[in-house]
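FAQ
Q: What does a multi-component entry look like?
A: The components come first, one per line:
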Amino acid sequence: MPAANRDYLAAWLAAETDLSVTELTDTSELLASGVLDSLKIMDLTMAVESDLGITIPLEDVIGENFATVGSIVQMLDRLQAG
Amino acid sequence: MTPDETCIGQYLQRQPDPATTALSWTGGQIDQSALHDKVTGLASWLSDAGLTHGDRVAVLLPKGPTAAAALLACLAAGVIAVPCDFHAPAARTTDLLNDLTPALVITTDERRADLPRTFRLIAVTPDDPATLPHSTRPLGCFDRPVDTAALILPTSGSTGTPKGVVLSYRNVTTFLHWAVEHFALTRADRFLSIAPFHFDLATLDLLGSQMIGASVHLLGEVETRFPGAIAKALHEKRITIAYTVPTVLTMMTTLKAFSGGVGADLRWLLSAGEVLPTALLTSLKAALPDTRIANLYGPTETNVISCHIAGTVDPSLPTTPIGLPCAHSQITICDPDGVALPGGTEGEICVHGPSVMLGYWNRPQATQDARVAGADESYRTGDFGRFAADGSLTFLGRRDQQVKIRGHRLELTEVEAKALATGLVQAACAVLIETDPQRPKLVLCAILRDDTISPKAIKASLTKHLPRHALPDTIFIVPSFRFTSSGKIDRNAIRQLATDHLQRD
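Then the predicted structure of the entire assembly, as tokens:
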């Protein structure tokens, strides 16, 4: 369910970064601002696999898919549906 | 070494080939002839504009072809190139520029607004070298004395302001000549540039590749955070030489980025900048069976001074050895007074040789303190080490508060100085907690100026003054610090406190 992936991501970001759940919107920028650095991206990729059972293939671990909250949720929904 | 033999001398003398790619990046490429025109055109323009030997040119641009052309042009014009961190906070960049007093700052339109107007600024487009100014007057042959300054690389400074490492043409070229010979690099090689241009690793990626007429693919700052993007470049550009830090390699192996033929053309994988854990080396060797792997060692002040080519991995060692001294480095292990110690003894790694920096920009005292008994071309690394019976060197840690975090070098005292400067804390002590060696955590322990201040406010203020890698992961408020008998903050006690605090979280 799409809402579940978004909630999961929001909770993960709140726990692992400086962002708070109330500040988050789908257009919240995560890369240019530096919220997601290389280790955080790796952590998130692994957390999604173990917690949601969604494996993000390497070709999807790229900037376009991690740029905003919305783009990550979109990718997760697509992978889950596929 | 003659001016013709320097990296830029060799670059300028080679007949550029319009059929060979010099630089590529996501979305474009430029051939040798076109790049050569941009480089010599800007170099002539810099001379026409009155810039000369000793003048600094700050290149404050996102990593890309324009920044690459600008740096090469500075060397060709014989002025000092200063690659700056485009993503550093504005206040930090202003401090750096005020210290450098550059004759020219090359930047973007968006950044121009928040820079001091006291400097001459030009705005260009990061992925379009054609936007650089140029002069059609032919550039004369390169005849700068090889011991003049060519490059200043900003590094973390213990007082809170970045410290600029000044390197001569001879310094840079000594390292590059060694690398070309040691790894048998040729114009047929294809380099991947992962590190930002203000890191010393970029001297090989950019200046090394262009010196020998090879091509280099430039990865942008955001791209390097994604194993998928690095893997794509390795594969599509059929990269043969990649030089990076263990943090990036950990990320690559964890996400299995070397699968599906990625890295098949890689001749050499070079690691530097941090300790290379044995477990990581083992994973790399399994993932890249046909690639040779080398562990390079040396601070920015000396560039690479020793190298270990990984053969059979010794699983009993926690980390990879840093290997044998390079031909250009005379390494001694010294006691605190700079006196050489006998073989097999633990002491400070000290270096003499032509790759050792000219000094720190504008810091004569720091330069003098870094020398061994006042000798030019010498450097006390501040690293502890020991020679093994086979002549190879083992790294054993630091003598001061310098640490490595996520591939960056950081003075913990710099974080403390910036924390005090916020005016929100009475006292501060930064420690690196490495309970999980793959995930070091930077913890700032602070005593608040008053109870109304929140850790979040301190973090918000630090964000304006420190680069992102230097921001504490956690700010831990304490009522008081314990002091050692000599009156210093007891860092060991604070490290213990911070470790306990992190475990409770």
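Q: Is there any commentary attached?
A: Sometimes. For this entry: The domain at 2-16+27-81 of chain A is CATH 1.10.1200.10 (Non-ribosomal Peptide Synthetase Peptidyl Carrier Protein; Chain A).
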